[in-house]
Write a structure and sequence with these properties.
Layout (H helix, E strand, L loop, with lengths): L4 H28 L5 E6 H9 L4 E5 L3 E13 L4 E12 L4 E16 L4 E14 L4 H19 L3 E4 L2 H9 L2 E8 L3 E8 L2
Antiparallel strand pairs: 1-9, 2-3, 3-4, 4-5, 5-6, 6-7, 8-9
Length: about 200
């Protein structure tokens, strides 16, 4: 059999060319995976369970009333870009030693808090507030003051904290939170390259 030294040289030349071209293409393909926007998805169930860990919330009102809200039940409102929740309410009259139970229905938007690495309630609105067992005059007062107090006490409340690994990799790659969208399945937190 006849040896062909030029074939061997040509094969080595061909292999080097392929490697020389393939390595940069592979690196570009790998980098392209991180170009553009990416997102973290939070399901409604996960958001509700994480939100529940921040409750019950207790707030004093005029040093006379103890206002406790607990047991959030979430409903997503993607068309309004908001989240609705129903909370159970316990209102304790510290002067008379009475307790009143009821519920409050809230709507709110979400904002990212970079210091806490979490989501906070913003633009809280009270859709309804019902407290059982109050006199007619007290019910009127609650109807007027309740929404203001609920907004004041719940605005900017932390309801979801990301796990450290959720955002650490994105930060290492030069990404940060850009927008937060409410979807029918949950919340989508979009990540974009830092400017």
């Amino acid at each position: 059999m006849m040896k062909r030294p030029w074939l061997r040289v040509w094969n080595m030349y061909f292999v080097r060319r392929v490697v020389f071209l393939a390595v940069p293409l592979f690196l570009l393909w790998g980098c392209a995976q991180f170009i553009g926007e990416h997102s973290l998805s939070i399901s409604q169930t996960e958001l509700q369970s994480r939100m529940a860990t921040h409750f019950p919330l207790q707030r004093k009102v005029l040093e006379v009333f103890q206002f406790t809200v607990d047991t959030p039940v979430l409903t997503l409102q993607p068309e309004a870009h908001r989240v609705a929740t129903r909370l159970s309410v316990l209102l304790q009259d510290r002067l008379q030693g009475r307790e009143y139970r009821g519920s409050v229905n809230l709507g709110f938007g979400l904002r990212f808090d970079p210091e806490e690495q979490g989501l906070r309630m913003v633009n809280v609105s009270v859709d309804s507030l019902q407290i059982e067992g109050l006199s007619h005059n007290a019910q009127k007062a609650v109807a007027l003051l309740g929404p203001l107090l609920a907004q004041d006490k719940l605005e900017d409340q932390l309801i979801y904290r990301f796990k450290p690994e959720d955002l650490r990799r994105a930060a290492l790659l030069g990404y940060s939170v850009s927008t937060i969208d409410v979807t029918p399945q949950g919340v989508s937190v979009r990540l974009a390259a830092k400017p």
